Amino acid sequence: MQNVESSNAYYLSKFNQSFGDKPTEVRDTEHYKDEYVTTFVEKWDQLIDWDRRWETEGYFFIEQLRSRGVKKVLDVATGTGFHSVRLLESGFDVVSADGSPAMLAKAFENAKARGHILRTVQADWRWLNRTIHEQFDAVICLGNSFTHLFNERDRRKALAEYYATLNHDGLLILDQRNYDSILDEGYNSKHKYYYCGEAVVAEPEYIDSGLTRFRYFFPDGSQYHLNMFPLRKQYLRRLLHEVGFQKIETFGDFQETFKANEPDFLIHVAEKEYKNSYSEV
């Protein structure tokens, strides 16, 4: 009987999300591991649409990296592998990390189908350097992934780990949804960039200052949810500064200039290089 119960529990955890009786009270960093169940991960690329994402994104990230002489990149939020594969095909040396084993398995499968073998590592950002013992020219954390951290201590720890794994003149690129717009004016996405799958509906089901709960509807009638912390732009920029990044540029939907509430996504490009503000005598 115990084996049957264990098998049932495993099946449920692998194929069904569980948020309990009060889903909007689930505000725990650890819970993302239970949100990316296998059935959701298998559908994730319907949401992204690799080909359309490639067209809308263009060469933004590649140009940001190349312009700073980056060669070795750590993709800490690999997901199903879109950016890892694209950077590999652009000539970068890439290590692909994620906290979800299901995502890493899908990323490896996607890369292999395109003729690449990913170097994958399952890692928790808060203890990144326990798992990864290399230095990188750049760390990328894309796909709104950083908003899975609900505790400020976790956010600071993760940023410090990114900082530590970078070379002295390294670069961090981190993105987020434009939560300022969502919190202040309500949700109104153009669905032009990032999530380009036209047949999938992604929209917030619940919003407050400590939680944005997104619901994803797929063509087969299935639906899934993600609970995320709504990071405000200036708050995240402040954290980046306090961790040690001196120069931070923020782009809106890949544009350098933008009105505050217009973009769907914000992209922070933070430089580690220390520049002494005092002239030597």
Give your account of this protein's structure.
- By secondary structure, this protein is of the alpha/beta class.
- The protein has eleven helices and ten strands.
- The protein has a seven-stranded mixed sheet with strand order 3-2-1-4-5-10-9, with helices on both faces. It has a three-stranded antiparallel sheet with strand order 6-7-8, with no helix packed on it.
- Helix 6 links the parallel strand 1 and strand 2.
- It is globular, with a radius of gyration of 19 Å.
What is the CA-CA span between the terminal residues?
78 Å
Q: Residue-averaged pLDDT, rounded?
A: 89
Largest sheet: 7 strands, mixed
Approximately how much helix is present in the residues? 25-40%
| Largest sheet: spatial strand order | 3-2-1-4-5-10-9
The radius of gyration is 19 Å
Helix-strand sequence: HHHHHEHEHEHEHEHEEEHEE
Total count of helical runs of at least 4 residues: 11
Instruction: State the total count of DSSP E strands.
Output: 10
Helix-strand makeup class: alpha/beta
Q: What are the low-pLDDT stretches, counting only 5+ consecutive residues below 50? A: 4-13
- Specify the overall morphology: globular
The fraction of residues assigned to DSSP E strands is 15-25%
